[in-house]
Amino acid sequence: AFSTNSVLPTRRHVSAPSSLQLKSDEQYDGDDRHSPKCELNRRTALSTTFAIIATTASPFLHPIVSNAQDSKGKVVVYGGSGYVGAHACSLLTQQGYAVTSISRSSPETQLARSKSILGTSLSNVDYISLDAGKASLDDLSASMKDATAVISCVGLSPGSQNQKDGNGLVNSRITQAAKAASVPKIVYIGVSSTLANGPAKFLLGDYFSGKATAEKSVTSEFGGKNSLIIKPAIIAGGPPGEIRPPGPPGVKAVDVTAVARAAVSGAVGDLIGVIDGNEAIEAL
Questions:
Q1: What CA–CA distances, in Å, run from 55 to 18, 31, 105, 113, 238?
Q2: Residue 73 class from Cβ within 10 Å (0-12 exposed, 13-18 middle, 19+ buried)?
Q3: Alpha helix (H) residue ranges in 78-128
Q4: CA-CA distances (angstroms) from residue 89 to 19, 74, 196, 237?
């Protein structure tokens, strides 16, 4: 966990689960919750695996509020009203960034959802309704116009219908559109390698395949120096009223604010590369 008033670290390149190097230079509505060193599973699966909640990103340009013009830059958060996304939006606004949250849900629904998660409304966030799985790439690119960074918390929960494309194709489209819009940086919330390579892969192969496709797209379009892939497994807590199954025995969940802080660090250019595992995320 971290204080929302804490100072972000200087830019670092992260590539190994726990190594950091100094660097100079619902289908899918919500956040995909997982944390680095755990195993995923459906809500009805064995206790050694667990379900991950999907992140949202959808929309047809329909803002509810206008950002202040005097800001450090514009950051677009796909799935910005989900669990991780709402916390990321909050941190970004506190640091003086103009923030746009994009989801399939209406702006009013996004605003209400964010308030239920954070306990307060983010009146200075632009909420836009757009479906990242159906909108044209031109419309997706238009939603990112003048953005200094994009964060994608979009995904389908494990075991969901169409979980492969809902995690892979949708995020690949977001990544391609961001590249076409000349967005300098992108951050993606993936899934830990420990989970993806563990026993859960036999039960949730399409889920992990979709995540892998999304991560590959981020690396292909932006390279390691202009992107950050955060790979959590179990994320502690959840939106109010949401009941989630326990994770594997002995696995410590990562705090949602730690994941959100990592995402914000990537968006503002302080972190690049790959952060794989809960311990690596909490060590930032």
A1: 25, 3, 12, 12, 12
A2: middle
A3: 83-94, 107-118
A4: 27, 11, 28, 18
- Tens-place pLDDT, residues 9-68: 445 665 544 333 323 223 444 554 443 333 333 333 333 333 332 333 333 333 333 344
Cα–Cα distances (Å) from 186 to 49, 60, 120, 241, in that order, read: 29, 21, 27, 31
C-beta of residue 34 within 8 angstroms of C-beta of residue 192: yes
Distances in whole angstroms, Cα of residue 109 to Cα of each of 131, 169, 184: 14, 25, 29
Q: What is the pLDDT of residue 249?
A: 65
Q: Which residue has the tokens 């979009």?
A: 154
**pLDDT tens digits along 154-177:** 988 888 889 999 999 999 999 999
Q: What is the pTM of this model?
A: 0.78
In the chain, what is the straight-line distance between the N-terminal and C-terminal CA atoms, in Å?
10
